[in-house]
Amino acid sequence: FFPHKSGNQIATEHAMETLNMNAQTILNNLLFGSSLNDDECSLSSTISVGVSFPLKQSPVSPAPAICRRGVQFDESANVCHTNHLYCEEDCASLWYNGEDYNQFKMTYSYIARLIHSTEGGASASPLSFSGVLLNSLFDCRDVGFEIAHGETVLSRHNETKLKQLYRFEGGLDRIGLERKSVRPIAADKSARRRELIRIIYTTQLSGSWSSQDALTETLRSRCEEVSRASRLFARALAQAQLDADSE
Questions:
Q1: pLDDT at 95
Q2: Distance of CA 88 to the CA centre of its chain
Q3: Which of 158, 170, 227, 230 is deepest in the core (most CB within 10 A)?
Q4: What percent of the chain has pLDDT over 70?
């Protein structure tokens, strides 16, 4: 005695056979390419034989969010102070605006070009603005060790001339134009910056380091040697400008 199958059982078995055939077709296409007929390769997302069996679809991952760099400020930390000296209209006129900044750039660019054209080049006088700055830089480049704060590395002659640059009328107006008006100083700075990048890159790639501290100390000592002249020169300029401003 063999029990008869119901209609639902027959439909279910037929659907399962169809699923197996479709699965085998997909596997053959993946393994051997699409060499089968197009009719044999066609599939539908659902099979309707009395009961529908939806095929599982791989979940679609959402597109990764674009990470944009930016700065955010905590607005709740803002503090508002009332100006009791000026009204709102007067306060607006006291602040520099975009036109003022553009005028500053044009003025100082003109002064830098003027200094370069009149005092720059190989024929610059040792007592000129460019000549004194270059001689001071040469003194800093000759130092092969670190100097404690408060000590000078300039010769007595160059130290005196450097202070005199900013004591004359209009001398303080040239603060910040040293590297823009004297091209060799700007070239020296750029060359040292490129050398620092090269040292960091090659040191990190060369050999294996026993620890991160060993790598850090090696980078520090090598970069310190390259940047020493620029640091000493900046310190000498700051001290000369401070002395001139305090007199």
A1: 82
A2: 38
A3: 158
A4: 68
Q: In whole angstroms, what is the distance from residue 21 CA to residue 43 CA? A: 10
Which pair of tokens denotes residue 223?
Answer: 């970069």
- Does the pLDDT of residue 4 top 70, yes or no? no
Distance, first Cα to last Cα, the chain: 122
